C-alpha cells in the first residue's frame, strides 16, 4: 500500500512558494462555499510513521485554512466523562456539523493501531476493530461526510535522522511527541500494521492516501491540492442518494406475526398489581445498590402504539429511583444543531454515565418506524439504519451499558377507546391530534415496520421485549419484571 | 427567616389524597403550557436541614411532574472536565432552555454553605460568594428564568428522630445521604448559616421560601401549589421588559476619546516586522512550555472595526502554536438551542480547558456593540450586559484563565481603502456586503459604543488593549507582544 509513498519527490522552495498563494485562495474559496452550502462535512484523518511530521501537517493545514470553520483534535487518555461512556462517544462529541471541517490526529485508529503494534491485540482483534471502524465510516459517509485519511510515510533512514534532529530545536520542541510505538526499532512492525489497517479500511467512501513526506514542499502541495480537489469535486456533485435494490417481499402464508401472536387478553387484578408492583420496585432498588451496578449504565427504550401507556410505565419504573440518577429523554423535531449532524448524534449526546439510567420515550427507532411509514426519509436511509442501530447498541453494550427495549402493544379497539377517553378528559396534555387518528389509519403499515424492526434489531445484547399492553396493570408489571431480570442477569455475569 | 417554617402543620392523609389529583392535573397543564410557549425556563433550588427529605421532595416532584420536560441535578465532586473550567461552568451546562424545568439539589449554594458551616470560610468570604450568586441569579431572571428556592426546615428534635429512622428502611436506604454538615450536633450552626444565606440572597426575582416539612402531606401540597401558582402567574404576565432610567449623557468638552487619542500613524517596516514577529512567536512558544502554563487557559477576544485585520492578527498568533491546543470561535446567528438560553450561554460552552487557548473572533461584546447600535436588543439588555460580562470574565480569571482583549482600530479612510481593495480581489470570502457599508454609515454611534465598552469593561483582570491598526505590521506585533507580556505577568504571579 506504500508504493507511491516510496517515491522521493524533489520539489524546491521556489516552485512551492510560487504555487502556494493560488492554492491557499482555492482552499479558502472551497471552504467558504462549503460553509455556505452546509451540505456535507469534511473529516480529515492524519496518521503516520513517527517523525513524519503529523503535527507539522496539522499546523500547515491550520495556517492555510480558515480556522473559524475548522477544528483540530487529538486524543490522549480518556477523560473521566469519556471513560464512563462507549468508546466512540469522544469522537461523536467532536464530529463536525455540515459545512465545517474536523482534522483528527490520534483518531479512532489510534488505539487499535497502537495495541496491534505493541502486540497487545491479536490479528483477529485488530481486524474486528477495523471492521467496526468501517461500519462507522460508512455511516458517516452515508450521512454526508467527506472523509479523507492520510498516511504520512518516510523511509527508515530518514526516520532515524529526523527523530534525532527534532529534539534539537527550541522552536519545535513541543512538536516532539512521545514515541508510543518505540521509535525506529519498530519501523517494520509499524509499517506492517499500518498496511493491514489500510488494506481493511480503505473504502471507496473513506480511502487511505499515503504520501512520502521527506520533502516538505511536496507534502504541503500534495495535501493542500488533494483536500481542495476533494471538496471542490464534492461541491459540484448533485446530492443524489444511492438507489436501493427492491428488497424481497416476504410472502404472507398464514397471517401470523410476532404481533398477532401476542395474547392481548393477559391481565392483572388491581390487588395483585399492587403487590407485584411493590415487589419489583423493591427488587429494582436492591439491584441498584448491588456493588457491580456502578460498573453499568442503563438505557431503556420505550416504543409502542400511540396511547399504549409508555409514559405510565416509565413513571412506575422511576417512582422509587433516585431522581438524580435518571433522565427521561423525549425527541421532538431535531434542533438545527442536530440537523447538521448524523442521525444518531442526538441520541449519542444523551447517553448516561455509569450508575445512571436514561429513559428514551421514543428513540432512534423512529427512523425505521414513523420515518419509514410517513416517508420522512428515503428507503435507503431507513434500510441502512438497522445495521447502524445494531452497531450503536453493541457499542453501548461493550461499554457496560445494559440496553433494555420495550414494544408496548395494544389492539386497534383498545386504542380507539383510549383516544376517546383522552379526548373526553379535556386535559391539554392528553390532547389527541388529527395526526394520531391519521397514524391509526396506517395500522397495517406500522405493524409491518414493527415486525421488521423486531426481526432486524433484536440482538443478544439488546433484545426486544414485547409487552401485551391492553391491560395497563399487566404491562407495567411485565416492564418492571423484565428490567429486574435483565439487570440481574448482567450483574451476575460480572461475578 | 424561619418563622413560618416553625408552624407544625397538621394535614391528614385523606385531605391530601383528595387534593392531589387536581393539583397534579394543574401542574401538568402548567408544564404543558410552558413547554408550548417556551417563553421562560423554571429553575427550582432545593436545600434544607439534614433529614428534611430533600430527596423525598425531588422524588415527589418527579412523580408528579412530566419528567420529559424536567431534569434533576445534584452536584458532588467536580469531574475532571468541570474542574478545569470556571466554577460555574457545571451549572451553565445544565441550565434549562426556555420551556423546560431544572431542579437543583446541591446547587450553587452547596459549596459556599458547606464551607461556612464547617468553618472553612470567613463570614466575609461567605457574603462575597453570595453576592456573586445574586448577580448570577439576577442575570438568569433578566434572561427570563423563573427562579424559586426552597429551604426545607425541621425542628432539632424531629431531625434527631428522622436521621435515626432513615437508616432503618431498606426501601429508603439510598436516600440517606452522608452528613457533610455533621448531623444534629451542628443544627444551630446550619440554621444560622442558612439564615444568613437567605437574608443576602432572597431577592424579588429569586426568593427563598422556607417551609416546615415535618408533615409530609403539608410539604407535598405546599410545594406543588407554590410551583403551580408561580408558573401559572408568570404565564399570564405580558413579556414586558422593565424600563431603564435615561442614563446621564456625558458632555463632549474637547472631542477627545480613547479612540481619537490613538496615534494611527504608528507603523513598522517589513524587515523590522519580520524580526519582531519571529521574536514574539518564539517568546510565546517558550511561555507555553513554562511549567506554570498548565495551570492556566487563555481566552483571547478580538474586536475591532470591520476590516481592521482581526483574522490576520489571529493567524500570526496561532501560526506556531500546537494546532491541538487552540480553537478559533466565530459567532454567526445563534442556533435555536442557543436562542432558548441566556445570552452568555453560547460563550460559556466554548470555554477552553487548562493548557488550551480559545480565540474569539468577535465575542460576547456583540451585545454592547452591534446589538446596541442596531437595536437588536433593548437598551435595558445591553446596559445590564456590562456587569454580566465583568462577572463572566472575573469567573474566568478566578479559575486561572488569562483573559486578553483587543480592540483593533483603523480610521475611516483606511477602512474605505480596504473595503475597496477587497471588492477588487473578487474572492468570495472577502465579499464586502451592503451591510458593511451600512455599518460604516454609523461610524459615530459605533465609536460611542466602543468607548463605553472600554470604560465599563476594562478591568484589572481583563483589561482592554487598544491596537493602532492602520498599519497591519504594527498591529500584529503589538498583539503578539501584548499576549506575551500578559501571559508572562500572570505566570510570574504564580511563583
Main attributes?
alpha/beta; homodimer; elongated; five-stranded parallel beta sheet; 495 residues
Question: What this model shows, in words?
Answer:
The structure is a homodimer of 495-residue chains. In chain A, the strands form two sheets. A five-stranded parallel beta sheet of chain A has the order 2-3-1-4-5, with helices on both faces. A five-stranded parallel beta sheet of chain A has the order 7-8-6-9-10, with helices on both faces. Chain A has helices at residues 13-37, 54-64, 80-83, 89-92, 110-117, 123-142, 156-166, 187-201, 216-236, 270-288, 310-318, 336-339, 345-348, 370-373, 379-398, 412-425, 434-441, 443-457, 472-494, and strands at residues 41-48, 70-74, 101-105, 145-153, 208-212, 297-304, 326-330, 357-361, 401-409, 464-468. Chain A starts with 12 loop residues before the first helix and ends with a helix. Chain A is α/β, with parallel strands linked by helices and 495 residues long. Chain A is built from 19 helices and ten strands. The longest helix of chain A is centred in the N-terminal third of the chain and has 25 residues, at 13-37. The radius of gyration of chain A is 27 Å and the shape is elongated. Chain A is 48% helix and 13% strand. Chains A and B meet through helix 1, helix 2, strand 2, helix 10 and helix 11 of A and helix 1, helix 2, strand 2, helix 10 and helix 11 of B.
Amino acid at each position: 500500500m506504500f508504493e507511491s509513498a516510496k517515491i522521493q519527490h524533489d520539489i524546491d522552495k521556489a516552485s512551492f512558494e510560487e504555487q502556494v498563494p493560488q492554492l491557499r485562495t482555492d482552499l479558502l474559496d472551497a471552504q467558504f462555499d462549503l460553509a455556505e452550502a452546509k451540505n456535507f462535512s469534511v473529516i480529515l484523518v492524519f496518521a503516520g510513521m513517527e517523525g513524519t511530521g503529523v503535527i507539522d501537517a496539522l499546523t500547515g493545514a491550520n495556517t492555510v485554512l480558515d480556522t473559524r470553520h475548522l477544528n483540530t483534535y487529538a486524543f490522549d487518555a480518556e477523560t473521566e466523562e469519556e471513560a464512563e461512556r462507549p468508546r466512540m462517544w469522544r469522537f461523536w462529541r467532536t464530529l463536525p456539523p455540515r459545512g465545517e471541517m474536523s482534522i483528527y490526529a490520534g483518531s479512532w485508529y489510534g488505539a487499535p493501531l497502537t495495541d496491534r503494534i505493541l502486540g497487545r491485540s491479536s490479528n483477529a482483534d485488530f481486524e474486528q476493530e477495523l471492521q467496526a471502524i468501517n461500519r462507522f465510516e460508512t455511516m458517516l459517509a452515508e450521512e454526508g461526510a467527506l472523509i479523507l485519511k492520510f498516511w504520512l510515510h518516510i523511509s527508515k533512514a530518514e526516520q532515524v535522522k529526523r527523530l534525532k534532529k527534532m529534539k534539537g530545536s527550541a522552536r519545535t520542541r513541543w512538536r516532539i511527541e512521545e514515541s508510543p510505538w518505540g521509535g525506529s526499532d519498530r519501523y517494520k512492525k509499524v509499517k506492517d500494521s499500518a498496511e493491514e489497517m489500510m488494506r481493511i479500511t480503505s473504502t471507496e467512501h473513506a480511502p487511505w492516501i499515503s504520501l512520502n513526506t521527506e520533502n516538505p514542499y511536496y507534502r504541503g502541495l500534495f495535501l493542500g491540492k488533494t483536500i481542495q480537489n476533494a471538496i471542490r469535486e464534492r461541491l459540484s456533485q448533485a446530492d443524489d442518494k444511492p438507489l436501493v435494490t427492491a428488497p424481497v417481499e416476504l410472502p404472507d402464508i398464514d397471517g401470523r406475526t410476532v404481533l398477532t401472536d401476542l395474547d392481548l387478553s393477559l391481565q392483572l387484578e388491581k390487588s395483585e398489581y399492587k403487590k407485584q408492583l411493590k415487589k419489583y420496585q423493591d427488587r429494582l432498588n436492591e439491584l441498584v445498590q448491588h456493588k457491580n451496578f456502578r460498573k453499568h449504565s442503563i438505557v431503556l427504550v420505550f416504543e409502542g402504539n400511540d396511547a399504549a401507556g409508555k409514559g405510565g410505565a416509565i413513571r412506575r419504573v422511576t417512582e422509587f429511583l433516585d431522581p438524580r440518577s435518571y433522565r427521561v429523554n423525549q425527541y421532538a423535531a431535531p434542533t438545527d444543531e442536530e440537523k447538521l449532524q448524523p442521525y444518531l448524534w442526538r441520541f449519542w449526546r444523551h447517553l448516561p454515565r455509569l450508575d445512571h439510567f436514561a429513559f428514551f420515550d421514543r428513540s432512534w427507532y423512529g427512523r425505521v418506524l414513523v420515518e419509514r411509514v410517513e416517508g420522512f426519509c428515503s428507503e435507503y436511509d431507513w434500510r441502512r439504519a438497522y445495521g447502524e442501530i445494531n452497531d450503536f447498541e453493541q457499542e453501548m453494550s461493550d461499554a457496560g451499558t445494559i440496553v433494555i427495549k420495550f414494544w408496548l402493544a395494544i389492539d386497534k379497539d383498545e386504542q380507539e377507546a383510549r383516544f376517546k377517553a383522552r379526548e373526553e378528559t379535556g386535559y391539554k396534555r392528553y390532547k389527541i391530534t388529527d395526526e394520531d387518528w391519521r397514524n391509526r389509519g396506517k395500522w397495517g403499515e406500522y405493524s409491518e415496520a414493527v415486525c421488521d424492526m423486531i426481526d432486524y434489531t433484536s440482538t443478544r445484547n439488546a433484545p426486544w421485549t414485547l409487552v401485551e399492553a391492553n391491560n395497563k396493570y399487566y404491562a407495567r408489571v411485565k416492564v418492571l419484571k423484565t428490567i429486574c431480570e435483565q439487570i440481574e442477569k448482567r450483574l451476575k455475569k460480572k461475578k
